């Protein structure tokens, strides 16, 4: 317990850093993921192509490489931001590809007749998607989106290697101070467990409220 009690503020900063990364990156991932899913089912070929390229590239790019590309590449184009913002961009964009596929799979579960009925009433593609298809798809994609966001929370550990305050990075100063490395990582693991269990509880609640009965 000494590792935790004597360094509670350090663990606290790392924990809050990971929570912030997870929340902001999740919001970005959800926004981009839903947008890319809409692109992938859009009637416009160029949008479908863009969505396909987005998902294919990001799903097949190692997250660490994407961090390097964002952290080192964007400043070369004159975009200079705090490292935390760069980390949110990298995590959010990477995770959006997986959110996109989960949402697209949910869209495919909605009967085709629903969209055809909406179009017969004169609704546009945007109206059909937002008012008819996505609300029904949402009920089926709650579990996979929850699992994806849990993975995002764990992936945020990579940000510590890029001077971003997060939970895993707390082991470095503690190791330098001579604390037992095993207990250092035990309390780090507890912190991640709290975060992932919180996400799981939120999505379990959403699934009980809106999910499709099995």
TrEMBL record:
<dbReference type="InterPro" id="IPR000515">
    <property type="entry name" value="MetI-like"/>
</dbReference>
<dbReference type="GO" id="GO:0043190">
    <property type="term" value="C:ATP-binding cassette (ABC) transporter complex"/>
</dbReference>
<feature type="transmembrane region" description="Helical">
    <location>
        <begin position="21"/>
        <end position="41"/>
    </location>
</feature>
<dbReference type="InterPro" id="IPR043429">
    <property type="entry name" value="ArtM/GltK/GlnP/TcyL/YhdX-like"/>
</dbReference>
<dbReference type="GO" id="GO:0022857">
    <property type="term" value="F:transmembrane transporter activity"/>
</dbReference>
<dbReference type="Pfam" id="PF00528">
    <property type="entry name" value="BPD_transp_1"/>
</dbReference>
<dbReference type="GO" id="GO:0006865">
    <property type="term" value="P:amino acid transport"/>
</dbReference>
<dbReference type="InterPro" id="IPR010065">
    <property type="entry name" value="AA_ABC_transptr_permease_3TM"/>
</dbReference>
<keyword id="KW-0029">Amino-acid transport</keyword>
<keyword id="KW-1133">Transmembrane helix</keyword>
<feature type="transmembrane region" description="Helical">
    <location>
        <begin position="181"/>
        <end position="206"/>
    </location>
</feature>
<protein>
    <submittedName>
        <fullName>Amino acid ABC transporter permease</fullName>
    </submittedName>
</protein>
<feature type="domain" description="ABC transmembrane type-1">
    <location>
        <begin position="15"/>
        <end position="203"/>
    </location>
</feature>
<feature type="transmembrane region" description="Helical">
    <location>
        <begin position="79"/>
        <end position="99"/>
    </location>
</feature>
<dbReference type="InterPro" id="IPR035906">
    <property type="entry name" value="MetI-like_sf"/>
</dbReference>
<keyword id="KW-0812">Transmembrane</keyword>
<keyword id="KW-0472">Membrane</keyword>
<keyword id="KW-0813">Transport</keyword>
<feature type="transmembrane region" description="Helical">
    <location>
        <begin position="53"/>
        <end position="72"/>
    </location>
</feature>
<keyword id="KW-1003">Cell membrane</keyword>
<comment type="similarity">
    <text>Belongs to the binding-protein-dependent transport system permease family. HisMQ subfamily.</text>
</comment>
């Amino acid at each position: 317990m000494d590792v935790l009690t004597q360094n509670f503020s350090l663990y606290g900063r790392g924990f809050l850093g990971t929570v912030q990364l997870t929340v902001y990156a999740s919001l970005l991932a959800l926004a981009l993921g839903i947008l890319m899913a809409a692109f992938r089912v859009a009637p416009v070929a160029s949008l479908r192509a863009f969505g396909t390229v987005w998902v294919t590239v990001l799903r097949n790019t190692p997250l660490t490489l994407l961090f390097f590309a964002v952290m080192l590449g964007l400043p070369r184009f004159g975009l200079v931001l705090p490292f935390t913002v760069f980390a949110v961009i990298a995590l959010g964009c990477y995770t959006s590809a997986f959110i996109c596929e989960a949402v697209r799979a949910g869209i495919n579960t909605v009967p085709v007749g629903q969209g055809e009925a909406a179009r017969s009433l004169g609704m546009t593609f945007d109206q059909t998607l937002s008012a008819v298809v996505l609300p029904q798809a949402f009920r089926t994609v709650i579990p996979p989106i929850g699992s994806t966001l849990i993975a995002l929370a764990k992936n945020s550990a990579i940000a510590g290697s890029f001077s971003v305050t997060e939970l895993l990075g707390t082991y470095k100063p503690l190791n330098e101070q001579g604390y037992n490395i095993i207990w250092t990582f035990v309390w780090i693991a507890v912190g991640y467990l709290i975060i992932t269990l919180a996400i799981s509880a939120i999505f379990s609640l959403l699934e009980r409220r809106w999910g499709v009965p099995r």
